[in-house]
C-alpha cells in the first residue's frame, strides 16, 4: 500500500470524522434532518454522524458511501439508530449510480458531500430519479463564495486542496448546480461559518431544501420560499 492510499483510505476519513463533529457543525446537521420521515437516502454517509439527528419517523437510511473506513467508523451510530427501530443498509459506493428503484425515497440528505462526488451531474440525476413525488433533497454544503476575492483564492487553492481532501472541490457553486440539475431551492441559508481569517475558503456554507422543478412544493418548514431568483441564480 502506498502512502497516498494510506492517507486517502485510512487517515483522511478519520480527519473528516473529527472535523465534522457535532461540536463544530451539529446545528447544521439538525437543520438538515429536521422533520424528515420514511425512507431516506444519504449521499456520502461517512461515519454516520447524521444518524442521531434523524427523527424517529425516519424508518430507513440507505447509505451511499465509498469509504470502508468511514463505514466501519459508523458502526456504533448504526447500532444506536437501529436500537431506535430504524434500519441502515449500504446500497451503493457512488451517488452517480444508485441501485435503487425509481421513486423509492422520501428524502435525500447530503452533508458536505456534493463537493466530492466526481460525476455530480449524474448523482443529481439519480437524486431526481429516486425521489418520490413530494420528496425533498436536504443539503448542507460548502460552496463557491460570493465574494470575488474569496472565490479567486478557492480557485487558486483547488488543485492542491483536491489532492489533500479526497477530491473535494472548493470551487463548485452548489446552489447553481442544483438549480441547473432541475431543482428549485427553498428554506435556504448561506453564510460564512466564522470570521477567522483564511477560513472563508472552506467556510461559505449553503443549506436548504431542493425539490424537483415542476412539482408543487409541499415542504413543512416555516419560511420556505423559492430561492431561484436569489443569490444562487444570480451566480450562474
Ligand atoms: C466531507 S465527507 C462528509 C461525510 C458526511 N456526509 C458527514 O456529514 O460527516 C464527504 C463524504 O463523501 C463521500 N464520497 C466521496 N465520493 C462519493 C461518491 N461518488 N458518492 C457518494 N459519496 C461519496 C466520501 O467518502 C466522504 O464520506
Q: Your description of this structure?
A:
The protein is an alpha/beta fold. The chain has a single domain (3-234), classed as Vaccinia Virus protein VP39 (Rossmann fold), CATH 3.40.50.150. 37% of the residues lie in helices and 24% in strands. The protein contains 9 helices and 7 strands, in the order ααββααββαβααβαβα. A 7-stranded mixed β-sheet has the order 3-2-1-4-5-7-6. α5 links the parallel β4 (105-111) and β5 (131-142). The longest helix has 17 residues, at 3-19. The protein is globular, with a radius of gyration of 17 Å. Residues 216-236 have low confidence and may be disordered. Bound molecules: S-adenosylmethionine (SAM). S-adenosylmethionine binds at residues 16, 20, 43-44, 46, 49, 64-67, 70, 94-96, 111-113, 116-118, 166.
Topology:
Layout: H1 3-19, H2 22-33, E1 38-43, E2 58-64, H3 68-73, H4 75-83, E3 87-92, E4 105-111, H5 120-130, E5 131-142, H6 148-164, H7 174-180, E6 183-192, H8 200-203, E7 204-212, H9 231-234
Parallel strand pairs: 1-2, 1-4, 2-3, 4-5
Antiparallel strand pairs: 5-7, 6-7
Bound molecules: S-adenosylmethionine (SAM).
Amino acid at each position: 500500500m502506498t502512502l497516498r492510499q494510506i492517507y486517502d483510505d485510512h487517515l483522511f476519513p478519520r480527519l473528516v470524522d473529527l472535523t465534522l463533529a457535532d461540536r463544530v457543525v451539529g446545528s447544521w446537521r439538525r437543520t438538515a434532518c429536521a422533520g424528515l420521515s420514511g425512507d431516506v437516502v444519504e449521499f456520502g454517509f461517512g461515519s454516520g454522524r447524521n444518524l442521531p439527528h434523524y427523527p424517529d419517523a425516519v424508518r430507513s437510511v440507505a447509505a451511499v458511501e465509498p469509504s470502508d473506513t468511514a463505514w466501519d467508523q459508523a458502526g456504533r451510530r448504526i447500532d444506536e439508530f437501529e436500537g431506535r427501530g430504524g434500519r441502515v443498509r449500504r446500497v451503493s459506493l457512488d451517488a452517480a449510480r444508485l441501485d435503487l428503484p425509481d421513486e423509492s425515497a422520501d428524502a435525500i440528505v447530503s452533508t458536505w458531500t456534493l463537493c466530492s462526488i466526481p460525476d455530480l451531474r449524474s448523482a443529481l440525476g439519480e437524486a431526481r430519479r429516486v425521489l418520490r413525488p413530494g420528496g425533498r433533497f436536504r443539503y448542507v454544503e460548502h460552496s463557491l463564495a460570493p465574494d470575488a476575492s474569496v472565490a479567486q483564492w478557492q480557485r487558486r487553492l483547488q488543485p492542491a486542496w483536491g489532492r489533500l481532501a479526497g477530491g473535494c472541490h472548493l470551487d463548485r457553486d452548489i446552489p447553481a448546480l442544483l438549480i441547473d440539475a432541475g431543482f428549485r431551492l427553498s428554506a435556504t441559508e448561506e453564510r460564512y461559518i466564522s470570521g477567522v481569517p483564511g477560513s472563508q475558503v472552506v467556510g461559505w456554507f449553503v443549506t436548504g431544501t431542493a425539490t424537483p422543478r415542476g412539482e408543487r412544493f409541499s415542504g413543512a418548514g416555516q419560511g420556505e420560499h423559492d430561492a431561484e431568483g436569489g443569490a444562487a441564480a444570480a451566480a450562474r
